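Quick one before lunch.
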Amino acid sequence: MKINAMKEKYFIKTYGCQMNVYDSHRMAMMLEDMGYEKTDKQADADFVLFNTCHIREKAAEKLFSDLGRALLIKNERSERGLDTVIGVAGCVVQAEDEQIFKRAPYVDFALGPLTYHRLPEILKKIKQKKQSGILDTDFPCESKFDFLPENKATGGCSFLAVQEGCNNFCTYCVVPYTRGVEYSRPVKDVIDEAKNLIATGTLEINLLGQNVNSYHGEDEKGVERNLAYLLNKMAELDGLKRLRYTTSYPADVDDDLIKCHHDIDILMPYLHLPVQSGSNKILKLMNRRHSAETYLEKIAKLREANPNLRFSSDFIVGFPFETDEDFEKTLDLVDKVKYIQAFSFKYSRRPGTPAAEMDGQVPEKIKKERLDILQAKLFDLQEKFNKSCIGQSFDVLFEQKGRHKGQLIGRTPYMQNVHVHAADDMMGKILKVKISDATTNSLQGEVI
Ligand code: SAH
Ligand code: SF4
Ligand code: F3S
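Model of the S-adenosyl-L-homocysteine complex:
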C-alpha cells in the first residue's frame, strides 16, 4: 500500500475576503505539517474546516446551510466506518460564539480569526476524544503569527498579512468586532515571510490588511514604520516581480504612500480604494473619514504620481437615509473616477453595529433597483476598459489552468483575467501576452 493512501485528508472551504484566503492557506500549511493531505472532495475528508465571513447576512447564513450538508456527509461516512471532524474558523465564530454550537451541535470546534494558531493542539485533543465542542474566541495577548510555521508559496501569487484588525468603526461594519483592534506585524517578520514566499516560487506578493495603509510595524530598532517604508523594503527583495497592497482606507492614504506609486516600479498600477458612497451626508453617517471631494483629491494625486494607475472600489447602496439624490452622487463619482473594476453591495443590517439601529432603513426593493443601476454602470466601465486593451501587450502572470486543454488563465498588472493557449509548465511564470479579445469579465490573448 502506498504511504499516501494512509494519510488523513483535509478539506477547507473559504468564504469572505483575501485575509480569509490567507488564513486558510496558513491553516492548510499547519495541517500539512501534521501529516494531513489536501482534498477537493468534501466526502473524502477526515477533517472539514469552514473558514467563515460575517460581513453581510447572506455570507453568515451560507455557513449554516453548508454545515447542514456537512452533517449529512459525516453521517454517510460514519456508515462506512469513517470518522469526520468538523471545525469552523473565522469571523462568524467571533461574532456568534456559542450560537454556532446551539445551531449546529455536531461541530467539533470553533476558532476565532486571532486564535487559529491553536488548531494543531485542538485537533489533537479532539482526535484523542479528550474534548469536543471547543470554542476559542480569545483576543489573545500573543500574536498568532509568532506561532505559525514558516509560510510557503503554492503558486506565483501570494498574499502576505502585514496588518490585522480595524479601529475605524464604520457604522455598518462588523470587522472591528470580529478582527479586533489594529495590529501591525514587525517589519522583519514581514520581510522574512516574503523571502520564504519568493524562495518557494512567488513572483507577486499582495500585502494584506483590513486597513493596510494604517500599517505601523516596528523595525529592528523599535522604530514605527509606515506602509511606504515597508513597500520600499519589499521592492529591494531579489526575485520579486510584482507588488500590491490591499485594502486601503482613503483617509489614510498619505503623501509617502502616493510617492511609492511613482518610485517603485514593481508596484502594480492598480489600486483598490473603497469609497462606499459619493454622498457626503451618507459618508458622514457611515463614519468614513473622507468626503467625495477629499477622496477625489487623493485619486488626482495618485494619478499624478503614476498616470497609468487605475482604480477599483467597494460601494454600499441603500444605506439608511440614502435618497435618490444621494445615490445620484455615487453615480457621479463613478463617472469621475472611471473605475476599471468594483464590488457593490446592498446595505446589510448587521446586529451590534450602529447603522443597524438607525431610522431611515431603505426598503429592499429600492436597494435592489439602485444596485442594478450602479452595477450596470460599473460593468459598462469595466467592459470599456477591457476592450481598450485589445491590441496592447501586457505581462501576464499565470495562476491557474483554464477550462479547455492547453489553456491557462493569468492576470495582467490591472488584475484582469486573461485566457491564453500556453503549456502547463508556464504556470507560475510571467509572459508577454498580446490581447486579442475582451469581454466584461475577461481578456483573451496570445503569448508573444
Ligand atoms: N477594510 C475594507 C473592507 C472591509 S469589508 C474597507 O475599509 O473598505 C469589504 C466591503 O464590504 C466593504 O468595503 C463594504 O463595501 C462592504 N460591507 C461591509 N459591511 C457591509 C454591510 N453591512 N452591508 C453591505 N456591505 C458591507
Ligand atoms: Fe470595516 Fe470600515 Fe474598518 Fe473597512 S475601514 S474594515 S469598512 S470598519
Ligand atoms: Fe468577512 Fe471577516 Fe473578511 S467578516 S470580509 S472574513 S475580515
